[in-house]
Amino acid sequence: MSVLFIVLPIALVLATAAVWGFVWMVRSGQCDDLDTPASRVLIDED
After folding, report:
1. Is 28 helix (H, G, I), strand (E, B) or coil?
2. 9 phi and psi angles, rounded to 5 deg
């Protein structure tokens, strides 16, 4: 039972960091264009 006092705050911190990272990623435009980077690999312009 005492392990919950250690694991639960660690889980909350990790979940908060994951949500903060996701929100930061969406706000900075990382998910705006999902098609172009995938097809850019196939088109060689050089």
Report:
1. coil
2. -65, -35
Distance of alpha carbon 25 from alpha carbon 30, whole angstroms = 6
Task: Record the pTM.
Answer: 0.64
Q: What is the pLDDT of residues 16-41, one digit of tens each?
A: 999 999 999 999 988 888 778 778 87
Phi then psi dihedrals of residue 45, to 5 deg: -90, -10
User: For the residues of the chain, what is the DSSP string, one character each?
Assistant: -TTHHHHHHHHHHHHHHHHHHHHHHHHTTTTS-SSHHHHHTT----
Cα→Cα distances 43→3, 12, 15, 16, 38, Å? 53, 43, 38, 39, 10
